[in-house]
Structures are given as structure tokens and as C-alpha cells.
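This week, study the protein below.
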Amino acid sequence: MTGETPTVSVIIPTHDREAILERTLAALCVQTYPPKLMEVLLVADGCTDGTVERMRRYPTPFLLHIIEQSNQGPAVARNQGAAQAQGKILVFLDDDIEAAPRLIETYVRIHRNGPGQVALGYLPPILQEQKGFFRLSLLNWWEEMFSGMRQPNYRYTFRNLLSGNFSLEATLFAQVGGFDPAFRCHEDYELGLRLLKAGASFTFAEEALGHHHEKTDLARSLRRKYDEGRADVQLGRRYPQLLPTLTLARFATTQSRRLRLLHTLAFARPPVGNFFALCGRGLLVFLEWCRLRSRWRELLENLLNYWYWRGVAEEIRTRRALANFLQNGPIRIEDSKDEIELDLGEGLEAAEQRLDEERPASVRLRYRQHPIGRIPSQVGAEPLRGVHLSPILATTLARPLLRALVLEEAAASPVSSGKVFTDFFGKTVELLYADKSV
């Protein structure tokens, strides 16, 4: 795709959001990318509010296709849009995303770097209806999702794919089979896992900014947690190797009396649990009125946890069944086929270059004849890249690396030994503190 000006298809699933779609389309009408190279596919997923009629009359400088389907969920809607898209690049946006003018242009620039790219856009929230402590909590939650991806040495996982704003090549989407319609929640996580397995490279595209007009309130957050509990069971069944990374895996190691009580209510006493959850929502109002923010956060966490475990219990009826599921489900991942050995005695840059070329799942490290340690595979994460190495050497493997350097010093001149120290630790410190003010 290097050098050419590709066509772009923007796919927007929607369900009874007629009131906000004009804002979404208006933002796409003022993109800096040529409109003649764009098309927008609006997939009306069981709409009954006049969305289709109103959008058909909306004037746009690009081709606007309205696709209707029965209410089958966002995964099916996105697949339907992708199946009819003509563009070489697919951009997926939610219907409440107001795209910044350079969003499409930014995505195209990233895909010019080569095939296999998945660009993850930035979604700063616009909160107008939420108030008080809940508003602050929601803002913090949104920003935490993107804070790590801003770091150049970040290692992407399947959880970083958010279906509200991302892009990829149409051929790559077809290659992995699109979204799985069996998932009504976390369908983006599931797709992210398959994309990483297929060798795709994730890139955070902060300039591909889409303001998210967030309408979530407390009730919707609790319903979402319930859906996430059910989706995690689905993910665990489909990909047993993911189980240790999912929240439900904490069930087997829970020591907290509070969490054990939540499990009991969710699995064995749901009517009682639902009643107390309803009372808890009222208590949140009282705690905020008293300005008891720490108590308010603790209670909110308990409510979110309860509804998550209610979702798990909907899929796995008893605690005994869940314990058996967790015990028998995980599969040991043998990554020896994707593991390489690196001799850091050849230099840090050489090691980083080899990681970028081979992208192994795990690495065994040594310095000359002295073993340093192993960077194991990380379930659900991208293969290792060169930028991942220095932070790991500065933290997890700092002590064995220093020991190897000291042992080697007996056979090395002071000059070469000092150069090794500078190469490994000087660059690491620079990477770790480059973004911090002194």
C-alpha cells in the first residue's frame, strides 16, 4: 500500500440512535481525506426509531450506504458492513463517536507503513450527563485504558482492541474471519486475540482521535459488568489458555471474606444479592452526599464485582462447576517452537534488531557463557519486539544481568566492561525516564 492513495470504508453499526447519528456523520463530512476515496456503511441493527429514513435524506460528500438487518448485535452488524465494503482499509466507529478531522488521514498514513497493521484510535470521553463521583470514576477508567499504549515500549494484548475506533486492511479482516457473532460482549477482545495470533501489529494512533459522547450511567455500568462476566466464560471456553488472564480466574485464589460473600450471593442467593445490590445503589447516593469518596469507591467496586459474578453464574451455575472449569480448563502453553536464545554479549542493539526480525513468543538470555534468565511468553499478548527488551532488563532481570556482567568482568578489560554497562543501563534509564520531568 506504500505510495498509493487507498480507498477507505467506514463501518458504523447503530441501533435506535437517530438523534446522535447526524453529529457522527457531520464529523466524517469534514475529514481532511478526499471524500471521493471514502464510503460510509451505516448498518441499522433492528432500528425502529426512524434512523433509516432520516439518514437516507442526509447529504454527504462521500457515498453513504444504509444497510438494514434484524436486531442481531454489533458483531453481526460490523461483519455485514465489512462484507459490502469496497475500500482497501476498513475503519470501524461506534455511532456515538465524533471523529476528529484528521482521523481517516491518520489511519491511512499508518497503513502505508506496510501490511498487517491494526491501528487503535484514541477515544477521549465527553461526559455531559454524568455527575459527581461517578463522572470522575468514568473519566479515570477511560484514560487508564490508553495511558500504557502511549509508551513506546508497551506490549499490546488482545484487550487493547476497542471496536469503537480502529482500522485494519480489508484483506486482514477477511483473513481472520471478522467478528465472532457468538459474542455480544468482548467481541473486540476475541477479534484482537485472533489478529495477534495471525501476526498483526498493533499501533496506537493517538491522532486518530474520536470523541466518545459517553451516555453510560450507573445502571448501564452494572449491566455491562454482568455481560462481561458471561463473555469471560465464553472466552475461557473458546480459549482455555486465556483463563489465567481473566477476572474469573481469581475465584480459585480468593482469600477476601468480602469477595467470598459476593460469590455466595451471586451463585447461591441471587434474590438476596439483587436486593442488597439495589440497596447499595441507594447507599452510593448517601455516601456521595456525605463526601465519603473512598467508601463510595469501595461500595461501587463491590457492586461491579457482584454483577460480574452474576454474569459468570448465569453461564456456570454453581461454584463447584466453576472450580472444576478453572481446574480442568487451562492448557499449558509450550512456546519452545517460538523461543529463541539471545547473547547480549553481541550488544543491545543487535539483540533488539533480532527481536524485531524474528518476533518470538519467548526468549532465553545470556551474556557470553553466563545465563541471565528467560522472558516467558505472555498469553494473549503480541510477540516480543526490540523495544520490550530494555525495560525488562532494567526491572525483572536487572539483578541476574548485573551478576553476569560482574562475572564476565574477570575476562574483559575495564574499558569493554564499562562500555557494556553503559550500553545496557544507559539506554534503559533513558527509555524509562524520557517522559518524566526532572
Notes: The longest strand covers residues 201-214.
